[in-house]
Amino acid sequence: MEGLAAVALAIALVGVGFWTLIVRRNLIWKLLGLNVGASGAILFLVALAHRPGARPPIVGLGPGPSADPLPHALVLTAIVIDFATLALALVYVIFLTEHRHTQDVRRLERDEERGWPQP
Amino acid sequence: MKALAAVALVGLMVLLALGVSGVFPRPAVPSGEDIAAEWGAKNVVAAIILGVRLWDTLFEILVYAMTMVGVKLGLRLLRWERPLPPVAETPLLRRSADLLLGPIVVFALYVAVSGHLGPGGGFPAGAILGTALLLLALAKGVERLSAEIHEPTLEWAEYGAIAAVLAVAGALLLLGRRGSAYLIAANLLIALEVGIGAWVVLHRFASSRGEV
Amino acid sequence: MGMVLLAALTLALAVFALTQRRLLWGVIGVGAHSLALAGVYLFLAAPDVALTQAAVGFGLVTFIYLLALRRTGKLTVAAVETPHLLHQENERVAGLEWEILSRFGNQLHRDVEVMWVPRAEIPALLRAGDADIGAGALFPREGEALLLSRPILPTRIVTVRCGPGPVGAVAGDRGQDFLPPGSTLYEDHAALAHALRRGEVGGAVADLLHVRQWVLSGEVRPRETTDVEEAAFRLAVAPTEEDVLRALDAFLAELEETGELAQLVRRYMG
Amino acid sequence: MAAALSGILAYLGCGLLGFIGAPRAFSLLALLGGTISFSLWAPGFPEVLVGGLPWGIAVAGDPWAVGLWGLGLILHATILLHARGRRDAFHPLTTVLIGTCLAAALSRDLFNLYVLMDLSSLLALVLIASGRRVRAVWAGLQYLILAEVGLTLYLFGLGLVYGRLGTLSVSALASLGPDLADPALAVGAALLLVGAAVKTGLFVFGLWLPQAHGQAPTEVSVLLSGIVVKVGVVALARLAEAFPVGTVLLLLGIVTGFGGLVYALWEQDLKVFLGFHTVSQLGYMLIGLGLGAGTGALLYAVAHGLFKGLLFLAAGEGVERVGQRRMADLAGQLSLPVAVGLAVGTWAIAGLPPLAGFAAKGVLAQAAPGWAKTVLFALGLGTAVSFSKLVPLLRPCGRGRTGGLGLLSGAVIAFGLGGILAIPGLLSLPACGAALLAAVIGYALHLGLRTVRPRLPRFTFDRALVSALAGAVGVAGLVTLSWLPWGR
Prior knowledge:
The complex is a heterotetramer of chains A (119), B (212), C (270) and D (488). Helices cover 72% and strands 0% of the residues of chain A. Chain A is built from four helices and no strands. In chain A, helix 1 (2-23) packs antiparallel against helix 2. Chain C is an alpha/beta fold. Chain C folds into three domains: 2-72; 74-152 and 232-269, 3-Layer(aba) Sandwich (D-Maltodextrin-Binding Protein, domain 2); 154-231, 3-Layer(aba) Sandwich (D-Maltodextrin-Binding Protein, domain 2). Chain C is 48% helix and 20% strand. Chain C has nine helices and twelve strands. In chain C, the strands form three sheets. Chain C has a five-stranded mixed beta sheet, with helices on both faces. Chain D is an all-alpha fold. Chain D has a domain at 251-456. The longest helix of chain D is centred in the N-terminal third of the chain and has 32 residues, at 134-165. The two termini of chain D are 35 Å apart. Classes of the chains: A mainly alpha (119), B mainly alpha (212), C alpha/beta (270), D mainly alpha (488). Chains in contact: A-B, A-C, A-D, B-C, B-D. The interface between B and C is medium-sized, with 29 and 23 residues.
């Protein structure tokens, strides 16, 4: 039950997040969408490690089978990496906002087509 | 365009569901308790991160460190001449910030040191430390923050921490020394590195003026 | 069961966050979503991941978004097109209030974006957070409950009479407060002037700035003009944006002190 | 194994120390350490699980590792020779970036590759943006977001594969012989492929690449096209080893090869033009992987790293000196070393004997069946057509700095000659004749094509995003189809 709900949630999060990523025109919104989508993939890995009645992968923590520890370790790395990517992306979004006075993807693309005229 | 996107996305979700349906139920997996014992840990995840898959973790730390560098360089590209909007500052906030500082540092240290026994470890500890430090600093006002902090000092501490982690990792990879003392030291070093790094990144976001 | 509920909550928070119109709410919503996700990880027997998610995915990420928003946000102005204050001139916007707003936006590192709206829609837009500042109209009006800046330009509300018949006003304008219920209301000042000229209404309650504009352009020939109230043009700020109001007032005070405001008024009012 | 890992640690450590001070010295030290380490393990070493069973990270000194280490070290030396005046964090960042690429060359673990791909994207973005050009930052930001989408899909695919087979090691997967009739594995393999493809910059997913590579500072472009794209190619090569996805890679390769070419034909900005050719050349490597000719793909990857590095170095040097980017404005303005560098690079990329391009294309063609030879010939012809545009640029004007141009030109020539000497049957009359024929026909076609100016569809960011998602679905379909009898 838990695993099923988690997996369904993971897929839904990928859908919602990527939908935002595509349809929103503002770069920060896109990054928010990406965040949610990426958290879907991470959740999927955690759900993969789970099994009915599992306990945390810590020695001596109750009876029952242990959850698969490897995905947990991978996911910890992935969470940190997502944060790093986000921080860097935000810096360059701020850069574009400073130089082009917009975060709108379409305006940036129009500018690119016209050869970046001085604002 | 939107229609195409919707079709593609629905297709992707169906695909994911199809794939996922083939994965469960999963076969039994090793619990890794023998590995944890070998590394002197109770938390298997800690033994994996700091032991078995240390090679990944090294690059993870590196990702983090390079982000700090990238944020610094990126923010330097900006051309801010004007002061930033003010951050709320009240005496109550300032006083509670002073009171909270001690417990938060102790809690972060606890999360780091006990990371090989229970949930925790260097990364969350560092994140807690960095976030809390900046929150408290912001309560005192950005101007005072910038005046009190000497950036070169921070950078030295940061790179020193990375270098220490590299040294521990190198010794471990080449010599194969294991034990809970190593895990505690590694967790503390990572916490230090991540904490300082998070603090530096947030600090720069909050107060950087650019140089151009 | 708890897990299913929590999963539903997590998804609902994500959907809530990503369907907001204001970025701030989006960021807060995604933060809440991250925290709920940490709860899901606890259910899935992954305390390590939950802790990291709470510290990094919730703490650091939300924090850095907020800090980024602080310097990149847009300042959306819901404005009524008003001569001298804020009006479209070919492709660009010009006027006294525009000058002030664009300088203010510069100071905040925020781009100023103007959306032209009828006067009556401004309060709803500000309250819903679709706009940060209302401009080009008389504030306050009864029952609007908006935050108001220091006065920018003093004016008067007057009644003009051109002939017999009822008196009209612009819907949502301060003038509406001085009319008996059931009077005719018009969407904007141009429609009101048009009605005056065609004799649909015999008079109008409006501010001196517009009345002078009507007279100068020859659109309206008033027989008599009576003062109703001393008033001033101010900028309205969304009820949630107290910080913006504080900064705006400080900015206006500085303009006044240095005499720049007087200069600007002379330039735009002729 | 220890030698290779310590080489990488030396690279990373020196890079980090370089942030504190003496960046050039530490960069040099890293190169030295890397070279010593390389010479210690050079012929290769068998696969080792770093960290031990059951979850250790597999690394091996296989041919890919050897080839890319050689390439990385040569490019690093070139940069050190060339970039005298770079301030700031340029040297430390490039050192860490090269260290990352070297680690990726060794890695045979799907998750380790994920981390390394992400790290290389981040570093690439920081370096691209260091040029302070708005369009470079915009291209880089698109790159980062697209790569992140790709890597999210990759992570999902990795989960599916791990969940089904319980391992992340490429060799273990290959020995299990994954059956793609299994939906979890088919979808998993497809997501892994698309993730790596988006990160690499294959056609339609990767049209950010020409702008990002073209707008970056000179030495950064050299690294990006020389070795950073190869991280993605290595990942694709590992996937090709683990899963039977040859047909899909072949199709992707053909589309990428011709797609990049079509856009390159009418591009006027010299460096962006070279960027489009990087996309097109990726097609060769994928075709090699798809045909099961791993050695050919590897040789092509190394050769491409050398001659495209040379082309970008020469073009960048010329563009910086003259202050113009359009080819028409550069004609007759370039200094002698730059013109010679461009000439050698053009000669090599056109596949003319006896340079690197000829040797690599020869090895590919040896492994290709008849119809694939035709495809490769057509690709070569297209390359010749578009590179004919560079001929007016080759007229030198005055002397200039040689910098790293000499080293890379030498490497391109040595690679070509060495390949011809080492591999029998490369320098045959038909092969030489075909190469010359392609060049001559190409030049003639170029004269005719100059008058045509079609409007190619622009690839906006949103289109790229949608194509990445649609690509995942499409590739999954192809993967599922490819286990049908005709696909094997």
